[in-house]
């Protein structure tokens, strides 16, 4: 129980930092793909000061290395979709889309982890759907593409988190983070030339201002390196569903920051807040249901 409490604390710190990434993504004047390219480059470089990369990679079995590299590609696609959704809608709407991660996890985790389906996880995942419907109906039609991209980002987040849960016990968190984010950077290096070539307008690669560089460093070191390692540590003691449901608090932190820093509350209708309320109800119900079942000796 003590390890689980510590895992929840570390996860909540990570979630707060994750919530700040949406604000930074809105502030940084780069396209989604270029921003993620810089993010994983700076993060991977920072990890070289924390691990002996060559030794760590040699110790890791080849099949496991390739699995984590594949997960890194999924992480890259998730972040590109996440920041793309912010550019197509706004930070608040994208963060709420990410709350559907728990629904996707309730479908993916039993299949990937070869576990029985937990009826209450499925129920809570389904509760989130009407909340999302209210949010979609309360936003302008011009933002619908951003909502779809945000949902894709949520699905990819559920996918890579569940895969990480399956394999995380076989190596340490820092090495896993380095392999996944390093692979994400290599993948984006392959994609970036094609993106530049097909773009109808010139693609800005270098940040133009000192503040953009500052935001990128904060995004990479605090909101990625630190947050990612804390989230992976927490996965050792929590289910993927519990982890992703807690990550649903990211909208709470992120939207509060968006209201304070970006004044996004001026763009949101009452239906948006009703949808947020339904989603938060599902988030906070999960630990209560688990505690109730544990007290009665039921499997959790």
Automatic annotation (TrEMBL):
GO CC entries: membrane
Transmembrane found in the keyword field: yes
Pfam families: EamA
Domain EamA: from-to ranges: 11-136, 145-284
The keyword Membrane is annotated on this UniProt entry: yes
InterPro entries in alphabetical order: EamA_dom (IPR000620), EmrE-like (IPR037185)
Domain of life: Bacteria
UniProt-recorded name of the protein: EamA family transporter
